[in-house]
Amino acid sequence: MYLIDKFYMMHAIKLAKLGVFTTTPNPNVGCVIVKNKNIIGQGYHFKAGEFHAEINALKMAGNNAEGSTVYITLEPCNYSNLTPSCCCALVKAKIKRIVVATKDPNPKVNGKGLKFLYNKGIQITKNILSKEAKNLNLGFFKRMYTGIPWIQLKLAISLDGKIALLNGDSKWISSKTSRKDVHKLRAKSSAILSTSKTIVKDNSTLLVKWNKLSYNIKKIYPKKLLRQPVRIILDRLNKIKPNDKIILSVGKILLIKSKYTFNNWPNNVEQIIVPEINGYFNLKYLFKILGSREINSLLIEAGSTLSGFLITYNLIDELIIYLSPKLLGNVALNLCNINSFMNIINVPHFYFKYIKRIGPDLKLILKPIK
Questions:
Q1: What is d(CA 117, CA 104) in angstroms, rounded to the nearest whole number?
Q2: pLDDT number for residue 203
Q3: What backbone torsions phi and psi does residue 98 show, to the nearest 5 degrees?
Q4: Is the dihedral of CA 14, 46, 114, 107 positive or negative?
Q5: Cα–Cα distance for residue pair 72/100, rounded to 1 Å
Q6: Catalytic residues
């Protein structure tokens, strides 16, 4: 039975992945309905406010769902919010058995959905491919458990660990293929954070450019449905102005400041006041604010100063590096600015989670050892 359950759950996980660009702040969920060894219904959650995966699968199965087994990557919800309760829909459909990859970490659900279904006489099987299902929703799980988003720091570096020449020139260290992959990272993220210094230097908008996405992504993610992540700018010294390119672009922008500036900001711009600690924003305080605003995942694109601060204080969950086979020399800018250490034991430690060749570059994903 386990191998059969695993087979269909793998299919449900594959379906769930189709929503990775659109579901935030909701989790990615897939559902498969099986009867007499045949898939009679399947679906995934596409967008907050639209039907959940279970409802989409039940609509496909119709009356044939009675007596079937339902495979779901996340525990069904037991309450109505923007959409009706999935538990009630499953009971009404007279489902015989439900196989769930993992419980929903949302305190409103977190076992209550499974208990409701069990009390209605439905057979329950739990923890089938639990790790794989959780990996689909790292940000959602972390936010539910800690109130803080999943935080990724992205850097493009040379073979000798530099992010730019001494004059600040960094276009382009990484290849076109790597830069296209960055747009995929942005498209998946709930929000993107950078500093005003980096924004002004690069004249960047931090927008996701649909034409930069791969053909396979475009097939499941039409341009008309493109979602721009919330863009967050650390602007302690008030360098960002109302006529800057990023301010005039589409999408929500959060300006992080020490005090309000009464410029004529457009409606898509919101100022958030964050206290400072020793000349830096209190980033833990900021990350809590972002979590309270249902931001699941935060991609940080910044220079060596902010990168060094984040690494020094263990504020990231993943370090994503695009390693280019170029040498920039001794007088170029380092990957990050961190204090000198007198003992190798005390330096920041990471382990390699993922290594892949991408064009002429290497893409590395590292997790800090905390």
A1: 14
A2: 83
A3: -125, 130
A4: positive
A5: 5
A6: 54
